[in-house]
Amino acid sequence: MTPFTVLTSVAAPLLRDNVDTDAIIPSREMKSTGKTGLAAGLFAPWRYLSPGSRDPDPAFVLNQPRYAGARILLGGDNFGCGSSREHAVWALAEYGIRAIIAPSFAPIFAGNCIRNGVLPVVLDQGSIAAIAAVNEPVRIDLAQQQVEAGSQRWTFAIGAEAKAMLLEGLDGIELTLKHRERIAAFQRADRLARPWIYFSTQP
Amino acid sequence: MDHIVDTRRGRNDQTLMPGGQAFITETRSAAREAGITLFDVTDPDQGIVHVISPELGIVLPGCTLIAPDSHTCTQGAFGALAWGIGSSEAEHALATGALRLSRPKTLRVTFTGVLPAGVTAKDLILKLIARHGAGGGKGHVVEFAGETVTALDMEARMTLCNMATEFSAMTGIVAPDEKTFAWLEGRRYAPTGELRVQALKHWQSLRTDDGAQFDAEILIDANSIEPMVSWGTSPEHSIGISGTVPSGAPERALTYIGLESGQRLAGTPIDAAFIGSCTNSRLSDLRRAAALLKGRRVAPGVKALCVPGSMHVKRAAEAEGLDVIFEQAGFEWRESGCSMCFYAGGESFPPGSRVISSTNRNFEGRQGPNIRTHIASPEVVAASAIAGCIADPRELRP
């Protein structure tokens, strides 16, 4: 996973509440069983003029020249709600989005972001409106947990584990396998304490 | 596979959904290679995962259960910590037997009072989401508690927990009780004999301590809840069926759905009616809908479908003659699967249709291009199918 340290980019405002993962990438755009080839389907229902077409809707934020190449997205409350499809994050990442700033994220979506090198930044609505109003690139420094736009600066909170994984581009599986012994010991003890949980104990 | 497989009669690996067949055959061979039990397309136990896992006694009180599907929270109804994850986390769990998780915050939602006739668990959860917002759960684990919840049967508790994800909760959970234990008895993967005795002792201990402190609490009076229907493009856009579209409703949602503030929902003409999904496709759901459909006909011009949640549900419904009631009323009676709860290029209604649906998501395009979805209980779907417009099931009762 590509580490996330500092990112500077224009920030595209998509200031709607409850942006769901069906809107981020509809099921019909998830054509393969893999993680690639999804960027063209990103926000397909809003980005293109008609279903299935590739004619850009000029009104949609990512189609506006001033937001071309945006790597930061500004969102509304409960961003990424709905289906757990990780394709939503894969599509965002493949398109080039590396950070999303929103007042809140749906929990599965936030977890998917962190596992794919995309930083979910939680800031209040007022701060996001202020960032959107500043007509300058936005700088996000993960180590400092700071967002800067123009002369203004905001601090954000993030869990220590998520921060470490993003900063160092760590793979969760590798981290967990370091605890292989403890996991096995738990399972041995649990198998004795709650044998009914384990299918192998069934007749 | 539940999302992919067709629900038309005589189905096989081929799907209306582009790429579906490849998905099914790749999943099948991967499962075989890894030695993982697969409830395949033609398996008598096939169905929606959140329906068949309880049916088979795979979910048990006190277990942790994960699946790469947001509605895994359904199974919290059994007092399990069951939640949806992404593909990377699923890979992580398969590779390590564990997940990395920070202890979630807790929220208790207590429902008091008695559900009025014609009001269901679907209406409880829609009321909660309408009142506190689709983001209101804030990643907390939600315990559904109170006399109203205790009085619900297991299938209704599953409906309640199913939409915890629509509340942006990590999951929902109900304390297991005698109903839970009785429901699980004799299920294929549930413990029997001495193991069940041991398990019961443990399960009976799984309840919130008196005086326990939650990070947040919500109290809802169930006595005054009406059948709920969504008017917009988020489950939080829901109102009682006698209500009107609120003033100040988001313009974007109104434009998509084709309604105006102040407009009554009841009486809005519909093109289609759908009963199915992991929210409301179990035997009790079909029974309640059939009770309203019996001896009645779907309004002319309304396309109506019933998709049982599992082949087990389908067979049980057929044994009671429910299929005949649905078909005589003008509903299609399908094989089980997720079907038109969502659209991926396969099964769908004509673009732009207005659909009354027992599903969980009324997002833009969720059921197909420009399709306008109104989510509600199976009772509301059945009553509306008969009336040809959004209708209150309480007015149909004899």
Question: How would you describe what is shown here?
Answer:
The complex is a heterodimer of chains A (203) and B (398). Chain A folds into 2 domains: 6-170, Aconitase, domain 4, CATH 3.20.19; 171-203, no CATH class. Chain A contains 8 helices and 8 strands. Chain A has helices at residues 21-24, 44-47, 87-95, 107-114, 125-133, 160-168, 172-177, 180-193, and strands at 6-9, 11-14, 72-75, 99-102, 119-122, 138-141, 146-149, 152-155. A 4-stranded antiparallel beta sheet of chain A has the order 1-6-7-8, with no helix packed on it. In chain A, strands 2-3-4-5 form a 4-stranded parallel beta sheet. Chain A is globular. In chain A, 41% of the residues are buried. Chain B is globular and about 55 Å long. In chain B, helix 4 (121-132) packs parallel to helix 6, helix 10 packs across helix 12 (322-329) and helix 10 (283-293) packs parallel to helix 13. Helices cover 30% and strands 14% of the residues of chain B. Chain B folds into 2 domains: 45-225, Aconitase, domain 3; 228-395, 2-Layer Sandwich (Aconitase, domain 3), CATH 3.30.499.10. Chain B is built from 13 helices and 13 strands. In chain B, the strands form 4 sheets. Chain B has a 5-stranded parallel beta sheet with strand order 11-10-9-12-13. In chain B, strands 5-4-3-6 form a 4-stranded parallel beta sheet. A two-stranded parallel sheet of chain B has the order 1-2. Classes of the chains: A alpha/beta (203), B alpha/beta (398). At the A-B interface, helix 4, helix 7 and helix 8 of A face helix 1, helix 3 and helix 8 of B.
